[in-house]
Amino acid sequence: MKRPVLFVILPRIPYPLEKGDKLRAYYLIRGLKEHYHITLFALYREKYDSEVVRQIASIADRYSFFHISLFSVAWNAILALFTGKPFQVAYFSNSRMKRAIRNAAHESKPDAVLCQLVRTAEFAKGLDTKKILDYQDTLSLGMKRRAEKSPRVTSWFYQSEGRRLYRYEKKVSDWFDHTLIITEQDRDALPVHNDRVHVIPNGVDTLRYQSGDCKKKNQLLFVGNMSYAPNVDAMEYFTNNVLPGVLMPFPATELVIAGAKPHSRIKMLASDNVIVTGWVDDLREYYCRARIFVAPMQIGTGLQNKLLEAMSMGLACITTTLANNAIGATHGKEIWVANSPEEWVAAVAFLLSNRELRDEIAANGKKFVAENYSWNSQIEKLCKIIEL
User: Fold this and answer.
1) Contact 359/317 with Cβ under 8 angstroms?
2) CATH H-level, domain 219-372: superfamily
3) Which one of 161, 285, 287, 356 has the largest count of C-beta atoms within 10 Å of its C-beta?
């Protein structure tokens, strides 16, 4: 039986999986390929290698990549100053990909189109087929939170961009039959409130991320894209406000910060007790060796994939209310929640010294993720939405 055709339009090639939007796109496409003929369109800035091509070929039946030049970025940014378009959207404008999508739609007449993030919404505008937009996060909320934590000069920019995004998030909703969002708290913050907004959380590959047999160290761990502002902010907060208090009773403790493209501010945190790894081929090795995973998120939106992976690996996790609200785990049972520096120091020290409780939270967290965040269940929900 011939599979229906699904166009997927992305702002980035969904591999390697060092960013949350790439991870979400990769696993959703991989699951959707069981039900649809996938034609993928994606933009890119940096060169990609043969391994990227091999991975994409494994999840898409057809794919086309389009380069974003520095000239186009600069020109589109200038235009955005006058049009009111968010810079987040202007950056990803590309006339070549827009023409290619329209030509492909004319030839193959897709049964549906799935766009990821408002950055790609205009590529699908006007196509005569069912259209679905994955907002993923409420970007306007993320900009608002960054504005509140930034110096006055940059705060003004984030406030302005947040207002542009808020208007745009509302505007593009009318172009699509259905829209998706990762969490209920992001859905509540969207400037769109109707029954066509569906919550589709991220999942975790529980077969890949499972606890292994390795020697634990007296070690704290954080992983993520280390050029991403909320991650940089979280590690500066933890290193400056929490770690000194932990080292007083536990002087041998190490904080490992693992992830791609560490910002210069992250590199400056490196010390005898803080290890900055940079890119890691397999983060599971670091999950396996750590005793506690820390995610002291102060800003940002969406669902923290790093927390889901750590919980799936059988790690006791400590995070903030901001991050846990998106996940919905129970404090003291499946996760530990701390907000102030004093609460953080107390939580880390308590779990480091209490192995029985640490193991209990780790086991409960692992079970919680397996029951609530499988990719298969998210794929099933998405297929039903596409067929509506």
Assistant:
1) no
2) Glycogen Phosphorylase B; (3.40.50.2000)
3) 287
Render 281-293 in DSSP notation, one character per residue. Answer: S-THHHHHH-SEE
Class of domain 5-203+374-387 as given by CATH: alpha beta
pTM of this prediction? 0.87
pLDDT 10s digits, 289-302: 999 999 999 987 77
- Integer Cα distance of 384 and 388 in angstroms: 6
Q: How far apart are CA 183 and CA 78, in angstroms?
A: 33
Is 89 strand, coil or helix? helix
Please choose, from the candidates 206, 202, 197, 176, the residue with its C-alpha nearest in 3D space to the C-alpha of residue 28: 202
Question: Do the Cβ atoms of 118 and 170 come closer than 8 Å?
Answer: no
**Rounded Cα distance, 329 and 35, in Å:** 32
Q: How far is CA 191 from CA 113, 136, 167, 262, 320, in A?
A: 22, 14, 8, 33, 25
Of 255, 253, 261, which Cα lies nearest the Cα of 237?
255
Sign of CA dihedral 315, 316, 321, 325: positive
